[in-house]
Amino acid sequence: MTETSRDSQAEIIDGLRQLLKKQVPLDASTNIVRDLQLDSLAVMDFIMSLEDRFEIVIPLDRVAEVETLGELARVVDELRGRN
Amino acid sequence: MNCAEGIELVSILSKFAPLRQTYDSLRSVGQNPFEMVFEDMLSSTEGVYKGRKTILLGTNNYLGLTFDDACIEEAVTAVRAHGTGTTGSRIANGSYGTHRELEHSLARFFDRKHCMVFSTGYQANLGMLSTLAGKGDYLLLDTDSHASIYDGARLGHAEVVRFRHNDPDDLYKRLKRLSDLPGEKLVVVEGVYSMLGDTAPLREFADVKRQMGAWLMVDEAHSLGVLGANGRGLAEEAGVEADCDFVVGTFSKSLGSVGGFCVSNLDDFDVLRVACRPYMFTASLPPAIMASTIMALRRMQEEPQRRQQLHENAQRLYHGLRKLGFAVGPQCSPIVSVAVADAPLAVEFWNRLLEGGVYLNLALPPATPTPAPLLRSSVSAVHTAAQIDRAVQLFEAVGRQLGVLPPVVNQARKRQAAVAPIAGHAEVAMVASGGAR
Ligand SMILES: Cc1ncc(COP(=O)(O)O)c(C=O)c1O
Q1: Which residue from B minimizes the CA distance to A49?
Q2: Considering the entire predicted model, what is its pTM?
């Protein structure tokens, strides 16, 4: 895992902790929809907050392919790399 | 279902089991809101449901033109003269003179060089979004966009980026992040948003669009005939028609028929007729529909007082409900939505309104901008004051029965409540319904 990937992932987990009211274990294998029981509106809001945090845009088709936190971190990394 | 060998047979529809469950649970409360059947339509504002007259308060029939005598006459004449349908697309079967006439009428009305008509407004969005923005381009969509806008984006090959609802600064930020990347950027907003009736800050969006060199499309589905001195929609009202490169809309609301369109001043716009699949590969509009639509567009221009009456009616309903303490949307428009706490309550409320003789739309998440379900009404210019007052009365009665409004205790407390706490309540709930975003 690259340095930025760990950074992105840590920041994503940090952001989710603030969003989720209850304590849940969060790591790279956490399934965003299934394990966190977020509805689609909440997921979209969260994605937009990540866009702002990392100063990137995450196109919708990239969101569609993401299931776990690890995958999300990789997408964020890749998009951070392109700027 | 098990077959003889005990192998589990999974239906292709099994994936819809959770949806089926939700759907069936709606039915258990009473009438399923998504299975309504009216035995008869009496006028633009009255139908017959289970043998009784029901006020229609959720039809998007803004100008009440569905029963206009002149529109009906034109449709009847056209069906006799040109038959019931075109039985094919304009590319394959050719256009009728009426297709051209309809397009010319719309282009003239909007003062634009070009117009293309589609078989529905949904297809107009599907066609324009998927064709205008190609591979390597970017579509920037408001988060609260209509399904037809999202679906148009999915049909095409552009990258799709969302910006926060009605937030020009947020759009600016996102365009800025994309500014070094090649590809055209097309921003899509709606004149009036169909769930809460709020309008886009179009002047500010136009500023951002100009500054960032993007293209701008406005869907005037709910604002055609509703906003602007001539009824051309929000772009006219906001004075930014020149910045709106593409205006799309529908005939299914203020014009009382069915169909969609896009107008533009862009040179070479007509090339889209042979590039846009939702235009090319579906049957064109039938003669009767086009004839009534052309007449409706004329009636709309001849009778601006309809628009005036529409706004008076909207005020009557919006302020009537707001004063009672209901959580209405952030601004008064012909779409008046009341947010309630949860789906079971919304379904119960909706059923009691129907039993009381008022029909409107029930919108459940995720179709709503926030998790709050909405009781959505749309006002028509031809609603009578008595019909609207009846609806407000019924809303109050049901609201008190179900505890959405506080019970009436005595006059003194009622008066006090009507001033401070209820206004506060309305505001809080408005935020909950996404109104303040
Ligand atoms: C914003 C918006 N765009 C497009 C449409 C689609 O219009 P039509 O009913 O003509 O398909 C609608 C209506 O449902 C709408 O609300």
Answers
A1: B164
A2: 0.91
